[in-house]
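User: C-alpha cells for GSCFA domain-containing protein, please.
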Amino acid sequence: MDFTTKIPIEKSNNPISYDSKIIALGSCFAENMAEKFSYFKFQNEVNPFGIIFNPVSIENLVSRVINNQKFTEDDVFFHNDLWHCYEVHSELSHPDKETFLTNLNLIIQQSNNLITQSTHVIITYGTSWVYRNKSSQKIVANCHKVPQSQFDKEILSVEVIEKSIQNTMDLIKKINPNCAFIFTISPVRHVKDGFVENQRSKAHLITAMHEIINYQLSIINYFPSYELMMDELRDYRFYAEDMLHPSQTAIDYIWICFFENYIEEENHALMGEICSIQKALLHRPFNPDSKEHQLFLLSVKEKIDKLQYQFPYIRF
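Assistant: Done. Predicted C-alpha cells:
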C-alpha cells in the first residue's frame, strides 16, 4: 500500500556538477538548500544581500548588481541605533553609516562577479505580499521594525510578478547569457498574512512562474519544493516546532528529490565520498590519543588530500 502520492520531477536539462558555479537568491528556503550545497562542497554562494522574499525586491537588487548602481546616503536611514536599507536584510545593518555603505557597495561588486561567472542561478520566491513605503512609494524588501503605519500592504498581481521574473532573467542574461535558471516556490507558510492570504500568495507566484516557463523551457527548470511539502509531505510531523517552516527531515527529503534530478549522476559517487568524510570529521572518539584514532585521522586526511588534489577548491 502507498500512503503518499509521488510528485513526478523531470530531470534537469542543465544538470549541476562539481564544475558548476551556483548562486542562490531568495527566501530562507534558499538558505536551506545552500547549506546542502555547502555540505557536499559544491561551488555556491547564497543571498549576498540577505534573505529576500518577494520577486520585485529580488529584481531591484539584481538590477543594482548588473548595472553597478551604487548605494548612496539617500538609500539608507537610521533607526534603533543602526543604519538600515529598505532594499536589503537587517543582518547587514550597521551602527556606522560609512561602513554600512562601503559594505553594501562591495557586495554589489562581488555579486556582479558571482553572476558573471555562474553556471546556475537558483531563485526561491517566498511571497506575493509586499510592503510599500508611504513616503517613497517603493516596495521594500525588509521593514526593519519601522512602525507599520509607514507602509501599505498589498499583494502583487500575477502580471506584475511575471514581468518581474522576466526582468530579473533578462538582467542576468545581459552579463551572463549562458547561465541556466532554476526557480522554486518556498514551502514556508507565511500565515502571518493569513491562511487564505498565504494560499493566494503562493498561487500568484506559481501561476506567474509557469507563464514564464511555458515558453522558455530550454534555460529554465522549475523544481517543485512547495508541491513536495504540500503533497508528499502532507503531515505536520514534517514541520518544525513553529508549524510554518519545514523540519530538517523535510529539508533532507526535498534535497534528495533535488539532487536525484538536478545533479549529474556521475557526481553522486563523489557526493557519497564527501558525505563520508563529513561524518568522519564529526566523529568524537572515546580516547583521542589512542593509536586506533590516530590511524583513523590519518585515513581521513588521506581521503581529503586525494579529493583536494582533484578539486582544489574543496575545503573541509
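User: Anything notable?

Assistant: The first strand starts at residue 21 and ends at 26.
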